[in-house]
Amino acid sequence: MGVNNQGSVLVDNCDFDDSYVHIENNNFAPSILATISDCDFANSNNYTAIRVEGCNTYNIDNNTIDNYMYGIEVWNSGHGKGDYFVKNNSITNIDGPALTFYSSSGIIENNQISNNDLGVKLLNNSSVQLIGNSNANYESQTQVIKDNIGEEVYMSSYSVPQIFHYNVIKDNDNLGGSNDALVYHNLPPSGQPIIDVEYNCWGGSSFNPLVDLYPVGAYDSDPTWCPGLSKGVAESAEILYMDSQTQFEDEEFIASKTTLETIITDYPNTTFAQAAVKDLFIVELFATNDYSSLRQYFNDNPSIQTNDVLKSLAEFFSNRCDIKLENWQTAIDFYEARISGEPDTEEEIFAIIDLGLLYYIMENSSNKASYGVGSMPEHKPKSKEEYIAKRDYLISLLPLKSKEAESLNPITSDEVLSQNSPNPVNGNTQIGYNLEQEANIQLNVYDYTGKLLITIDEGKQDRGAHHINLNTIDLENGIYLYTIKIDGQVADSKKMVVLK
Fold first, then answer.
1. What's CA 144's distance to the chain center, in Å?
2. CA separation, residue 341 to residues 40, 333, 395 (Å)
3. Taking a C-beta distance cutoff of 8 angstroms, is the pair 57, 78 a contact?
4. How many angstroms separate the CA atoms of 190 and 311, rounded?
5. Apex CA 178: angle with CA 173 and CA 181, to 5°?
6. Helix (H) / strand (E) containing 481
7. Regarding predicted confidence, which is higher, 450 or 138?
8. By the 8 A CB rule, do 434 and 461 touch?
9. Omega within 30 of 0 (cis) for the link into 188
10. Tens of pLDDT along 348-364?
């Protein structure tokens, strides 16, 4: 079921077999509530099971998701008054990330996330709490993130959870380091505070924070906690932050705003100060709705301007204020400056995605005639479908490791099939494959309904490296799957994005 809705949506007690729920709030109206609860999703590695986009309040609760392309995605959501949480869900056997947050706020609580390609992916200044049940006596009573192929938790530079406690996080075949860490923080900027991951259960005596948490030295993981043990004591900044949350829930918006500003002043070197910068943007709508003054606060506050991490965050949210004020050209210039910076960085990827969304917002605004296209028109999507396809591809590149983006396509010695290059593709692309012995080769291309679109018979090929030239001119924009058959047996497959 696909839903493109401008009112609140409730989906509960449903069975989805080879189908999905996508809820999109086109106008980003603050009163929209999206609720998906008590549903079973099964048997579709072609779709995202649950996608919530532009919904300021949402509840994703008590669902079972198994065997999908992506599990739960929360995009640009959680910026309103009310609940925004993902809790009590079971997510297994997902081809990509089980749970993705992008520029969103929310509470991720008491989920069971296992045997996926990647566990939890937190991106682009998301503000989340990653919490389990401190009173749990058994693993099944708290949040469990385990045995995923890649990272159990991946966090982009400014998306560290402000509260990260009482989870069971483990991996039976964990390799550690930058290749397969339990927790991976991408490219932490200079001055980033130590990440508090105290009071989590890391799966036994083999846990080594110098190997299993990446990068080395970025975390405080002691004391640990496991089900059946007593909970820890909150520190002053955390207590103050929770006070601001209570004030917001009680609709004491001015008090909540004041408390957040106090955290920034008194505890600037904490993740709670980072969370306070993000939350000020949310609270402003309900406190004084004065984004011009909030922008000035972000640009002038001494505690922010003397802290590199807070300053970078404030620049991002100052630009969000410009978007609220419909200062379109200023916002376009901001994103284009980030795109034209150092290539192949996380920041550039997010800026390309956000610039595409900005054009979409402008097209649907009341004064859309008041803007032009910036100096990078190639990042203005022709359709929402094209935007989503490009966005999904760019997100799939993360985490970028050691300039990995410069060599995404070469085939490695232990691979059969390489990623096509270029990707996304418009026209011709090249696919490499590697044979350990002489064999008959066939390449097949499918759309995500499973329909066979292209077959290339290579015939008998010698041992070693080979390439196939594929012409995609007749394919529509979208994501495709290509597979290689060796002597009649499927040996490997990859995803390909077509953008024209």
1. 19
2. 44, 12, 19
3. yes
4. 12
5. 40
6. strand 478-486
7. 138
8. no
9. no
10. 889 999 999 999 888 87
